[in-house]
Amino acid sequence: MRTDGQLSKSRISNYEQGIRRMSLEAASQLASALESVTPAWLLLLDEFEPLLEEERGLIEGFRAMDKARRRQLLDLLDGSRTPEDPPIISHEARKLIPRQEPQGPH
Predict the structure, then answer these.
(1) CA nearest 100: which of 59, 70, 78?
(2) pLDDT, tens digit, for every residue of 50-63?
């Protein structure tokens, strides 16, 4: 793990053992070096575990899509839900991805 000399091994060990409290800046540097966790997770502010490699791949693939493809994927996932399932994406977040109008003859 590379922190470019900003965080020593002993300092990181102190964080792990609870001897020192990590600052937001240190958490950001360490999260960047680890590449698999967020600063919030390191500071115990995030209730979720770090993402698995396949989860990171899904997110990267989703981010690489254009808005139309994102909408298409979300609609496909919504169609596979039962009424008892929680929503795939919140209503507020869904509003950020515009719905594509069907293209008809002009």
Answers:
(1) 70
(2) 778 898 888 899 99
